[in-house]
Design goal:
The chain is mainly alpha-helical. The chain has six helices and no strands.
Length: 122
């Protein structure tokens, strides 16, 4: 695979992350049209040009803006998953706890989970 093709493939993946899952009623055009709503600096035409390889430079300013948004979406998803795991662990620890020996650690885990989940501010 050439460098241009791999760059287009990577940009397509990032566009797909930003656009989100394709609904049954979506055409490719309507699906791609979601990206400019989330990344205000790019136009629909620019997104199409990136998708179809008309702009193949992975360091193009629009590709960088979409990449930043995709990374942010992925980070939020990872944080939510981690928060869920922490809540699960804290719940298990609380269920097994006999004499408040672990209450400070459980409280700390629950606080971290709330922060990661966006419910509390750090």
């Amino acid at each position: 695979m050439s460098e241009d093709q791999s760059g287009v493939k990577k940009v397509r993946r990032e566009i797909a992350i930003v656009a989100g899952p394709k609904d049954w009623g979506d055409t490719r055009e309507s699906w791609l049209a979601r990206v400019p709503r989330k990344v205000k600096t790019v136009s629909f035409r620019t997104v199409k040009a990136l998708w179809y390889g008309e702009i193949s430079d992975p360091d193009h300013w629009a590709a960088r803006d979409i990449r930043r948004e995709a990374e942010l979406i992925e980070a939020k998803s990872e944080a939510a998953n981690l928060a869920s795991k922490y809540q699960e662990i804290a719940g298990g620890m609380r269920a097994l706890q006999d004499q408040n020996l672990l209450s400070a650690e459980i409280d700390r885990l629950e606080r971290i989970a709330r922060i990661l989940g966006g419910l509390d501010r750090a």
